[in-house]
Amino acid sequence: MEGAMGCGVVHVVSQRMVRPSTSPPTVKGNGCHGPKAEEEDSEVIHLTPWDIRLISVDYIQKGILLPKPPSSVGGDDNDLVNALQSSFARALRLFYPFAGRLASEERGDDGTVSVFLRCTGEGAEFVHAVAPEVAVADIVSSLYTPPVVWEFFPLSLVLGADAAIEGLPVLAVKVTVLADGVFIGMTLNHSVGDGTAFWHFFNTWSEINRAAAGVGSSADLQDDLSTPPPVFERWFLETCPVPIPMPFRKLEHIVRRFERTAVKECFFTFPAASVKKLKARANDEMAAGGATAATISSLQAVLAHFWRAVCRARRLTPEQSTFYSVVVGCRGRVNGIPLGYLGNALVFGKAEATAGEIEEKGLGWTAWLLNRAVASFDEATMRESLERWVRRPDFTYMDNLSSAGTALVTGSSPRFDVFGNDFGWGKPLAVRSGSGNKADGKATVFEGPERGGSISLEVCIAPDALERLVADQEFMDAVTTPPAA
What we know:
The protein is built from 14 helices and 15 strands. It is α+β, with helices and mostly antiparallel strands. It folds into two domains: 220 residues, Chloramphenicol acetyltransferase-like domain (Chloramphenicol Acetyltransferase), CATH 3.30.559.10; 214 residues, Chloramphenicol Acetyltransferase (2-Layer Sandwich). Strands 1-6-7-8-3-13 form a six-stranded mixed sheet. Strand 4 and strand 5 form a beta hairpin. It comes from Sorghum bicolor. GO terms for molecular function: acyltransferase activity, transferring groups other than amino-acyl groups. Keywords: Transferase. InterPro entries: CAT-like_dom_sf, Sec_Metabolite_Acyltrans.
């Protein structure tokens, strides 16, 4: 169904702003104590260097494909959407700052600007859409991701800074009813939270809706939820000024929109058996070479397999330098950052080599490069870099991470609970992401649908290179081919 796979088949039924269902109780130390009637009196959450450096990238866009609920659960489409909106409002009660707005303050006297999250309670965007010509099989039966998936997300191609400049919501969802399924796409401003925060909210929302549908306990208050309570108080270095004055007269001066070159996407799933085999091979190669200090993880083995294949698919010359940027989470690595921390808590690790080295030295050595990039994290060094950032702020730009088609960057984590997001009528059938931050070389990692050790990679690279990647037998031997529609 080629026509349904193009653009223009998703039709918006309604669009509204959803406020938290009730004002949340004051939570000591969360940095936000409920709404005020006037914006100038509302509480604020000041943003950290980790938050602000990501204000220059697109919103996070991830979503899940669910089966169509039976009439006993969802009623008609309007009943379903109204129920989801109600549980969304209750989730917002617990994650109240997500209903706020980013704001900036320009100081003409010293030529600086600061940005912060104001807890105004204005609401998050909730969109109801329909795509009756699109079926579940159209999305999951091919390695290639159809362009229509990008239409399942609100606030597309919006930078984080745009929210403060234009008064946009920091959180939005779009519920699209398909021919035989439902897609729930969520969009979160990256300067407000990272992937951990994103899925924390998603998991909470689905649990609340599942309880309302009569599956499980009455999960409405935090005490009834399996997810940890959200913590909104931001983590700052003791020497960091709050708010942080940045040496720009206007927030707009930070913005740099990257050139969005033509890319195509594929969704590759590595079953648990393939992951285990790649991990064993990588560690065996390292042991044969005399290395015993590092143990290659499952994810590092999969990403090394991918990196080597992409070098071949891009036809990089042996002397061509290539690097891989991987996200290193700081929860559990930095004292003072609790499990439920809702801000950004991540840094980038970087592995670099020539394409010739990656090809000649094998899977184990390539995985070891990635292992070293993660292991190089050091809290003292991280603190020094944050101190430097305050003096000389720099920002994350996708074109730098892509590096003109010679580099790779992977975000997200297979540890995020994607397939536990049962809204009350069955677990997700698939996970996909939107157009946000889709540059040549972007790969997003998810837990595999079979869980238990499987890993999925959503790969976005230049069309000709992607075609060669799909034809690469060595790479594809480790991938599960989806069943035909």
